[in-house]
Design a protein that fits this description.
Radius of gyration: 13 Å
Number of helices: 0
Largest sheet: 5 strands, mixed
Strand content: 35-45%
Distance between the termini: 20 Å
Number of domains: 1
Strand order of the largest sheet: 2-7-8-4-5
Amino acid sequence: MPALTSDTQQIDLPAPKVGLTYTFVMVDTAGEVFNVETDVSATKILAVKPDGAGNNTAISQGYNKIGFKAAAVLGSSFSVTCISTTAAVAWLAHDVIDGLAANVGSINLA
């Protein structure tokens, strides 16, 4: 993802199809929020993110979006893979890397 210059940007994942994988990598500071959202509210992305102390911020749970906060820097990245056609567990976020020095502040889950 290049630096963004206006407002929050978003893309929507397609309907679940097992095996689809998408990877998103910042190649500059985001500057604006960028989100990857599910196709419908019932479809979830299972995810966790680092807390900066070698742990996760919470137990893995279903979210409707994952993305980069405006502060996300070069190298912040994540991948999403479709693991099921069951909406509640359709997508899995993995290889979540927060590029900021304290390992917090780049990744958005909601």
